[in-house]
């Protein structure tokens, strides 16, 4: 790929076998998108593979860059979603080279330095207030190194909020309350979403300032829970779902042997955000719901009709949750700054990986597999890690 290219639509290979479409998927299709800055290009590839196969989500849940990608998907009709997603990643692609590709390491350093000093025109820009010093009270709307006004303009250009709030696709974005550290999920099913809700979910401190919602300050939900699976698993009323959980930060990795490797691994662990432990807890809860449902047949009819027993049985359910985990790979050249690798080459590499990984998973169609009637949640990972 030409590092000086401006980005654009990823063109998948034309000779790949076509995986099955939506047929066979029982219940709603949910797309869960982690935060991770430039790593979110992987999510664009995941969506394109679903779109090319005729699978469109009924519900998108995201934090940070996942909220941005999610808003673009949910905020456009199916026929224009991919074009708008392409437009976003083209706009944020940070091209530029000082050696014309002869010294990639120097080019990468120059590109990162330019982002730190100048920002990304369609995403964020340096805040002049930050030059006054880290100890100066700037006000909550300016207490950050950058301003995200460019992102606001980009979102207004690429997201049709009137369409989004028709709820053709349900959108949920996660943000954390700055004052009390409580995670909150905002969804267009319950109230109209605005650009501020998406901005709040992407307000990662101290780079970006908090965003006001209903007079309260909110930050990027990823600093509290970067994998918002609980939003669908705790939803009421519960519906059977096939959940494509797109994870950008590797939970597994080798033990570091240098200080830099230790810092990189620490960030991977922090932003993978206990996804597996959350999932295990939800599996236990869902199993109990299925057990309660099964116990109903052992209760005599007269007793089953009493209000007290009916209230208890209401805790049971028969829904199934098929979690399809799509984990972005680590690349050998990844470093501490991989989440700001907005180079055209980095974007294409991750987007291609997302597309290819999703195509392989769709070809497997694991949601067709038989499930244990007592197990409410099935998790499907790469072949070597299947459960």
What separation lies between the terminal Cα atoms?
37 Å
| Number of helices, where a helix is a run of at least 4 consecutive DSSP H or I residues | 13
Kindly state the percentage of residues in helix: 25-40%
Structural class: alpha/beta
The main β sheet shows up as: 9 strands, mixed
Task: List the SSEs and their pairings.
Blueprint: E1 28-33, H1 41-52, E2 59-62, H2 65-74, H3 78-92, H4 104-118, E3 125-126, E4 146-147, H5 149-158, H6 161-164, E5 170-177, E6 183-187, H7 195-201, E7 211-213, E8 216-220, H8 230-233, E9 241-247, H9 259-272, H10 275-295, H11 301-304, H12 307-313, E10 321-327, H13 344-364, E11 377-380
Parallel strand pairs: 1-2, 1-9, 2-5, 9-10, 10-11
Antiparallel strand pairs: 3-4, 5-6, 5-8, 7-8
Helix pairs in contact: 1-3, 1-13, 2-3
What is this entry, summarized?
The protein is an alpha/beta fold and 387 residues long.
Could you explain the architecture of this structure?
There is one protein chain. With 387 residues, this protein is of the alpha/beta class. The protein has 13 helices and eleven strands. The chain has helices spanning 41-52, 65-74, 78-92, 104-118, 149-158, 161-164, 195-201, 230-233, 259-272, 275-295, 301-304, 307-313, 344-364; strands at residues 28-33, 59-62, 125-126, 146-147, 170-177, 183-187, 211-213, 216-220, 241-247, 321-327, 377-380. Strands 1, 2, 5, 6, 7, 8, 9, 10 and 11 form a nine-stranded mixed beta sheet that branches. A hairpin with a 2-residue loop joins strand 7 (211-213) and strand 8 (216-220).
